[in-house]
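Regression report. Comparing outputs from two consecutive submissions.

Submission 1:
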Amino acid sequence: MDLKACTADIIDSGYCVHSTLGPGLLESAYHKCLAHELRLRGRSVCWKVAIPVEYKGLRIPVGYQADLVIDDAVIVEVKTVDRIHPIHEAQLLTYLRLTGLTVGLILNFHETLFRDGIRRLVNNYK
């Protein structure tokens, strides 16, 4: 899996959706449109992926839900917020750690310029 090519395709798909729809819609609209755009490009897209949490022998099957998982390799969190806060980044890093995946993207469609709403995070947790 070429993670660089995958994330580039995700970001380009986000640009396409944002330039067509603009800011101001609900997150759910961007989720569906981004997933559709990625599928048109031949990417595998899983929606609202359950992430289990384990704690001292207790297993919670749906501790979290990732917005999108692309090609079983990249987690994408879709936002429509005034700005990306550190808690959004912490949330994505937690998802990466719990799933064992390496790369995640936060895409904030509320920004006037889409590039200002992109965060790429890498999990180096071992």
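Submission 2:
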Amino acid sequence: MALSAAQRLMEQSKVPPSEIGAIFYAGAIPQSHVAGACASGNPFNYPVALLQYELELERAMAIGISQVGCMGLNSAVGLARDFLLSNGDAEHVLCVSADVLPCGVKREILYNVISDGACAVLVSRGSERNRLLYRRQVTKGYYWDSVGKKNEIIAAYFPTAQHLIRSTLEGAGVTKEDIRWIIPHNVSRRSWEILLDLVELPMERLFAGNIPRIGHVIAADNWINLRDMMEWNLLRSGDKLLLVNFGFGANWACTVMEY
């Protein structure tokens, strides 16, 4: 799935493989970071190296990103931006995620329905569309045991997300009135009703159509939603977008973008 998503993105972007300066691969679960483990028994077969080879990204640095749960692709995009800022000769970074829950694992986790899926995002220097304006990430290691501290995570989720959204808007120099769309991770709609009420943002600005349609695609939600919004002509030039994400660990992230 990761290879298919990346190939489609490369074809659509028309960026030649030789211009990709780095590839960041993110997976939310440990099994996503081993390629062909069942066939070879080798835990050191890494999917990011396989992707770099299959996509012929000969100049690309290959890096795997893990241990931030469902925030993996969001973190990869943030690191891609930092990579471009610190490497003046690099023009593009390819970010890819893929996750498939193991057989027998329940697809309901903390009141959310989990789907398998993959996504690829191209981060480019000087892009005229979907500009990353500001991003913040918070980690609270006390909640590292996501099963043992299930109730505590639920209790901390809303006040932490509320604080993060407000501080991210402040850091980006925008107000909540400036935000045209909230692009969510596809956790339960009811949780979004609670959170948006806390930050005084209207539900009408939440792109919620994919929550019942595709469920929570682990690390990929924000970016699948953004792509669908673009394809469905929901965005207009200059729209300010707020992307919110959470991952076990426990990690919260918030990004302000401009379409």
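Expected: both submissions complete independently.
Actual: both completed, but the second showed a warning that disappeared on reload.
Relevant detail on submission 2: The first helix runs from residue 2 to 13.
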